[in-house]
Amino acid sequence: MTSQTRRDFTSDNIAGAAPQILAALAHANAGTAASYGADPFTAALERTAEELFERPVGIFPVATGTAANALALSVLARPFEAVYCHAAGHIMTDECGAPEFYSAGAKLLGLPARDGRLQPEQIAQAVAFARSMGVHHVQPAVVSISQATEWGTVYGIDALAALAAQAHALGLTLHMDGARFANAVARLGCTPAQATWKAGVDILSLGATKNGALAAEAIVVFDPARAAELSFRRKRSGHLWSKMRFLSAQLQAYLTDDLWLRNARQANAMAERLAAGLAALPGCRLVQPMEANELFIALPPAVPARLRAAGYGFYDWPAPDGETDPVVRLVTSFDMTPADVDGLLAAARAG
Amino acid sequence: MTSQTRRDFTSDNIAGAAPQILAALAHANAGTAASYGADPFTAALERTAEELFERPVGIFPVATGTAANALALSVLARPFEAVYCHAAGHIMTDECGAPEFYSAGAKLLGLPARDGRLQPEQIAQAVAFARSMGVHHVQPAVVSISQATEWGTVYGIDALAALAAQAHALGLTLHMDGARFANAVARLGCTPAQATWKAGVDILSLGATKNGALAAEAIVVFDPARAAELSFRRKRSGHLWSKMRFLSAQLQAYLTDDLWLRNARQANAMAERLAAGLAALPGCRLVQPMEANELFIALPPAVPARLRAAGYGFYDWPAPDGETDPVVRLVTSFDMTPADVDGLLAAARAG
Amino acid sequence: MTSQTRRDFTSDNIAGAAPQILAALAHANAGTAASYGADPFTAALERTAEELFERPVGIFPVATGTAANALALSVLARPFEAVYCHAAGHIMTDECGAPEFYSAGAKLLGLPARDGRLQPEQIAQAVAFARSMGVHHVQPAVVSISQATEWGTVYGIDALAALAAQAHALGLTLHMDGARFANAVARLGCTPAQATWKAGVDILSLGATKNGALAAEAIVVFDPARAAELSFRRKRSGHLWSKMRFLSAQLQAYLTDDLWLRNARQANAMAERLAAGLAALPGCRLVQPMEANELFIALPPAVPARLRAAGYGFYDWPAPDGETDPVVRLVTSFDMTPADVDGLLAAARAG
Amino acid sequence: MTSQTRRDFTSDNIAGAAPQILAALAHANAGTAASYGADPFTAALERTAEELFERPVGIFPVATGTAANALALSVLARPFEAVYCHAAGHIMTDECGAPEFYSAGAKLLGLPARDGRLQPEQIAQAVAFARSMGVHHVQPAVVSISQATEWGTVYGIDALAALAAQAHALGLTLHMDGARFANAVARLGCTPAQATWKAGVDILSLGATKNGALAAEAIVVFDPARAAELSFRRKRSGHLWSKMRFLSAQLQAYLTDDLWLRNARQANAMAERLAAGLAALPGCRLVQPMEANELFIALPPAVPARLRAAGYGFYDWPAPDGETDPVVRLVTSFDMTPADVDGLLAAARAG
Known about the structure:
Four copies of one chain form a homotetramer. Chain A is 40% helix and 16% strand. Chain A is an alpha/beta fold. In chain A, the strands form two sheets. A seven-stranded mixed sheet of chain A has the order 1-7-6-5-4-2-3, with helices on both faces. A four-stranded antiparallel sheet of chain A has the order 8-9-11-10, covered by helices on one side. In chain A, α1 crosses α10 and α3 (65-76) packs across α9 (227-236). The longest helix of chain A has 21 residues, at 259-279. In chain A, 62% of the residues are buried. The model of chain A is unreliable at 1-5 (pLDDT under 50). At the C-D interface, α1, α3 and α9 of C face α1, α3 and α9 of D.
C-alpha cells in the first residue's frame, strides 16, 4: 500500500490547491497592477460572474468562508435583528461568533433539522413567535442555509424555492452559505442561476477553497443596492487585499472551463464510490442521505478502529437519536482518485 | 524608452510577488496538510520568528495590514479606551474604521507631527487631559505608531525607546504598524529585536505584502499572555485561513535568507537614487527627510506635468504649511531597478 | 366589586412606586448636589450596600434591568466568549439582544431546564463540547441565572452553590439576574450575602423596579477588580445619570428598614394566597412550583375566559410538554392586598 | 451672606428637579399602568410633542443626554460612516465613546470652530476629502451640532438652515444635540418647529434634565421612517423603562404651560445679569458671545481666587489662543435667583 492510498478523509480543506489555480497566480504576477481591486483580473472576474449567473451581480472576493458569511450577513441583518439557521450550522457553531461580530450583535437563532435542511413551516413559526414578543425580541430578518448542508445533504431546487418564498413572504432575506456550492450544483445538475437567485437566494457565499483554490471565496450579491455597502464593510474588516489580483485570479481560474464543476464532480464521484463500497460492508449504513462529498455513516466499532490503525484520518461525529453504533464523517476532495477510495475500502474490509 | 523604464511610482503595493514567495507557495502545495494552522509550515514559521526576534513570540499570520493592525489594537484597547496615533496615520484615515470595528468602538485620537513621528511629550499631555476628564472621556490605553512613518521617516532607536518609556510609564502599551518595517530596519541597520521589543514595542504588525509577498502580514506579540486571545479574535474575524500553510509559507520564505531585508534594501536604495537625482533638478526639494522608500518632494509645476505626460504614475500630496509648489509622493519597490529610476529622472529633466 | 378588586395580574412592572421611594425622591431634591455620582446620596448607598452584603462591593445604579444585566455580562464575557443561560431566560428572549450589544457580540447559549433551574452537569457538558471545538467555537466564560427564575422557582442555596462551584471549577463566572432577587431572598429566608457571594455569585443584577422603585436597579460587583471597568461602561452606554442622586436615593430607600424585603414578602404572600385559592378549584394545578411571586397554572378553559370577562389581565403562557389545558401566568405585586387576590378568586369561581 | 447667595455655578446639572416635575411623578403614580410605553402618559406625550413641533414626530424618552445622542446617531450613521462635529463637542469628548458604541464604531471627525458653530464650508471640504479617499475612508453621513453650543453660543436660524442645506446637498443628515435646546429657543424667540425641522434638522436630542427634569430627555425624530428602528435600539440598549409613565410624565410636565421655556428664560436671564455684572469689573471680558446660560469669561487672576475663597464653584476652562488671563466657565440654572447672581458678583468685587 503506497502513501497515496492512505489519503486523509478528515476534511476537504486539507487538500492543496489545484494546479490551474497556482498557474493563475503565477500568470497574474507579471508586471504591476493597480491595487485594491482596480486591476484587470478583478474586472474580468466581474464579467465572468455575470455570465455565470446570467445577470448583473456584485462579486466581492475574500480569502475565507467565515469572512464571506459574516460579511454577507452584516448587510442583511441589523444589530437588533435575527438570523435563522440550522442549530448545528457552520455560522452557528464553527465561526467563533463571526456573524455576531460583523453584524454588531445580531442574533443567530438555531432551528433543528434532522437532515440539515430547514423547512418553510419552521421559519413561519419562529417568525410568528418573535413578532408576538414585540420590542423585547430581536426582529426576524434573514434565513441562512448551507448548500450543501452541514450533513452532506442538498436542498432540491423546489425545496429551496419554497423556503425562499416563505422567507420573502415574511419580509426576510435568504443567505446561502455555499462553502460546498459547487458540490451541490454538480449534484443538482442545474445552472448556477437556477441554484441561486432564480430560486430566491439573495446573497451567496461562493466557496472555492475547499474545492481547489488556495484561499478564495466570494460574496455574490444579487441585489445591486447592497453592493456599495459591502465595499466598505470588506475594507473595514481587513478583507480587501491590496494586491487583489491574486484573489481575483484564483476565482477567475476556478470559474473558467468549468474547473469548479469538474473538481466538484470528482469529489462527489469519489464520495459515491466510497458510499457504495462501505454500504456493502456488513453493519455499515449511512445516517444521512449522501448527496455531495460528505458521508455520515454508522459503522460497527471494529471498522473505524481498523481504519485508524491503517493510518486513515476522519472525524467521529455525534450520532443521531436512536443510533447506537459509532458514526463517522468521511469527506472526499477534488484531488482524490479511485485508488485513494479503494485503499480506504480495503482497509475497512481488512478485518 | 522601454516599458520597464515607465515603471509606476504610485505605491509599493502595485508590485507583484517576489519569485521566492511564489516558489514557496508551489512547494507548500505538495500533499495534504492539517488545516487552520496545525500544519508544519506554520510550526516552522513560529520557530523562525522566535529566532528572528531572539525570544518567545506569538506570531499570527493574516492576509492584510489592516487586519494585522486592527487585530493587534483589539487586544490592547478595550471598547472604552483610547489609542493615540498620528493625525494622518494609516489606522486613522486609510482603514475605513477597521480599528474601531475590531475594538468595538475604541477611539483613535490623532496627534499632529510635522514629520510623522510622535513625541513623548505629546503623549504625556494627551493622557493628562484625558485623565482629568474622569469617566466622561475614553481612557488612554495605547500608542500606535508607523515605522517607517506615513511621511517616509523612520523613528531612531532612541526616539522609539523614549516614546515607549513614556507610554509604559503612563500605563499604556505601544503598537507598531510595520507595513514598511523591513524598510525601517534596513535603514536603521539594527536587529529586529532592537527595532521592537528591546525598545519597548509590545505588538508589531509585521508587513510583507508591500515588500514582496503576495498577501501576507503577521501580528507579532511579545507578551505571550495576549496570544491566546488573538487566536480567537483572528478566527472570529475570518482571518484564519483553512489552508493556513499558504500564508505561513509566504512568511517563511520572506524571513529566510534575509529576503525581507534584501528586498527592503533594494527599495530603499532606489529611493535614494531617486532622491539624489531629483534633488539635482532646479527647484526640487524634499519636504520630508527621505529615510525609507517614500519620497515627499516639492517640484516646480512643470515637472509633475512632464512626468505624467511620459506615463508615470504617482500621487499628488497635501503640501505642508508654507510650501507653495506642488508636492508629490513617489514610492519605490523591491523589484525596481536603477533603470526604472533613471527613466523617471530622464523624463523629469526632459523639459 | 370595586375597581381595586379588579387588580391586573399581568406583571409586577405595572405597579407604581412605593410611597417611601417617592418620598425619598422629594427628600433628595433639596438643594444642589454634585453630578454624576459625586453626591452624598450615592456615597450613602455605597455604605448601605456594603453593610447589606457584609463585605466591600461595587454598586452601580442604573434605571433598568436590561441595562444591569447587559452591563454585568459585558465585564464578564469578551466578544469571543459564551454565556450559558436558560433557553427561555430573560437575557435570551426578552432584551432584544442587549447582552450581545453590550458585550460586542458574545454569544448566549441556551440550555433547557423544565423548572427554570440550570444544573451543574449541563454546564459541564456544554463547556466540554465547546472546548473540544477549539478556536472555532466561542469560549465558555459565564453562567447567567435568574433568581427567582423565569418560571417562578427559586434556586436553593445548596443548588446555587453547586452550580457556582461547577462554573468556577471550569474557569467560568456566575452572574445572577436578580430582577426578583427580593422575592427569592424572602422565600429563602437567608441573608443577601448567603444568597450571593457566599454561594459563589460574582455579579448580581439587583432589581428594585418590580418591587417598588420608580426606575432603579443596581449592578453589585463582588470582585472589586471589575468595578473600575463598569464605571466607564456605564457612562459609555448612557446609563450614568447626571443627577445621580435620584437613582441612589431610590435604592437607599429601598434597602432601608427592610423595605425591599417587606415589599417582597407581601408579593410572595399574595402569590401564596392566590395559589392556594386556585388550587382549590377543580382542574386547576400549578405547572411549576410556586416559590416567589409568579404562578404558572393550568386551568380549565372556562376559568381564564371568566377572568378576562371580569376584566382581569394576565398572560397566556406556553404549556409544558404533556399539558393540554391552557396555562396562564399570574404575577403578584408588593402593593397587592388580600382583597385584590380574593377578587380574582371570586371571579374564577363565579361560573 | 446666606447659603443661598453661595450658589454653585459649576453646571446646570447640579440643580434638583423643578417642583412641577416632581408633582407630575406623584400624579403618575396612581394605580397601575401598562408597562414599556403602552401607558396613557406616553400617549399623551406623543400628542403634546406633535402639537409642539406642528407635525407628526416620533418621540422616544430616555433618561440621559448621552443615551439620546448615541441612539440618535446610531440610526443616522452606519458602522463604516462618519459623523462630523465640533472638535470639542460633547459627543466627541464627554461621552466616553458612547456614539462609537451605539453605532458599532462609526467615526466622529472633529472640526474646529472658534465659537462652537460649524460652518457649511467646513462640511463641504471635509466631505470632499473623505470622498476622494474612496473605500479607505469612513463615509460621510451625519453632521451633529449642539444647540446651544459647547461654548454657550447659539446658531441663528439662518446659519442653521445654511448648515442643514449644505449637509443635505451632500447627502448627509443633521443631528442636533439639544441638551440646552430650551435655552437656545428662548434666546432665538422662535418656535420649536422653526428651530428644528423647518431649518433642516433631521433628529433632535431634546434635553430636559439640565432645565428642571429629574432625569428625562427625548429623541425627537422628524422622519417617521426612522422611528421603528429606534424602538428596538432603545430596548436593546436598556433605555426602555418598564414603568415608562415616569419618564413620559416628566416630559409632559416639562412641555406643559411652557415650563421648559419659562425655566430656560430664567436661566438665560440670570446669565445675562451675571455677564453684565462681571463685564463691569475691570479686566473681565467674555471670550465667547453669551447667548444662552453659560459664560466663558477671562478674569484677572485675583477674581477667581476671591470667588473660590468665598465658596463659589465653577470650572477653569482652556483659554483660547492669545488669551493670557485665566478663563472660567459659569453656568446658570432654571432655579437661580437674582440674589444668587448678585452674591457672586459681590464676592467678585470684594477685593
